[in-house]
């Protein structure tokens, strides 16, 4: 069996509770294929879409409207922040 | 500048990038600080210490015991006082040579334009999205620079907004709505009261905001405009990402 292609998902602040308990540094490996997009990962991980306020792919801002068609490929790093407004 | 001021600001002025001219500029400058909490406290203290000549403080809340683990402009003795009055006491003790104006009110669509219009630069240390969007829109109308910070749990964010204007490299500057087009549902937004805040994280982000305000007032160094700093306290990591103007932005997009 060949290993699946993997990318990294990082979830911050209150979204960290969606990570598996063994996750370290807010980070987990996710399996990706040619159909994987930012939007599909948000759905598969059961992340509340409204809590995915700031999305970065390899450190580059992904506009909310572009999430559905932005592919996530092997080796990519996807970071998601919830709304942060505390002062 | 009198003798007392010359001594007080000596360590600023010895910096070539500031000098006596820069210090005079700070003394002649004004800043409006929204929220006198975890972010507003260090911002106000450092801007007062640096000699920003006139500070406006906006907050409608009173000092509560649960504030004191991070809101360092306030004291146990001043519990129950309006936050703006408590902070004004702290600032007067630190630097009696500047003017502090207290506005014991919430920022509202009715009062925002007059408040923002009366100061050179605006600092967002508020604790809610309504205020953040309102400030962006008023600063867009008035062409004001807005140094924005936000906190949650162990993490923080910082950016400088020049809504409707340009970055130092000539590109259009993004506004808050370019990055976050629509306000999140209030029920998806945890506040410090529910989610918690690791107190000193407020000091990290608030102090960075003070640095950025002073840089903007002096025209010094690289602006945070067009960049967003993400701080993760648990990992002790700082990452800066680039942000661009969104031509489809509902506030400052093409044709607006």
Keywords:
heterodimer; A: 87 residues; mainly beta; Ubiquitin-like (UB roll); 5 strands; B: 256 residues; alpha/beta; Rossmann fold; eight-stranded mixed β-sheet; 10 helices; 35% helix; 18% strand; globular
Account of the protein in words:
The complex is a heterodimer of chains A (87) and B (256). With 87 residues, chain A is mainly beta. Chain A has one domain: Beta-grasp domain (Ubiquitin-like (UB roll), Roll), CATH 3.10.20. Chain A has one helix at 38-44, and strands at 5-11, 27-32, 54-57, 60-61, 77-81. Chain A has a five-stranded mixed sheet, with no helix packed on it. The longest helix of chain A is centred in the middle third of the chain and has 7 residues, at 38-44. Chain A is globular, with a radius of gyration of 13 Å. The termini of chain A are far apart. In chain A, 36% of the residues are buried. With 256 residues, chain B is α/β, with parallel strands linked by helices. Chain B has a single domain (9-242), classed as NAD(P)-binding Rossmann-like Domain (Rossmann fold). Chain B has an eight-stranded mixed sheet with strand order 3-2-1-4-5-6-7-8, sandwiched between helices. The A-B interface holds A 12-14, 25-26, 48, 50-51, 53-54, 56, 59-61, 63-65, 81-87 and B 35, 37-40, 124-129, 132, 149-157, 179-181, 184-185, 188-192, 195, 197, 202, 228, 230, 232, 234-235, 239, 241-244, 246, 248.
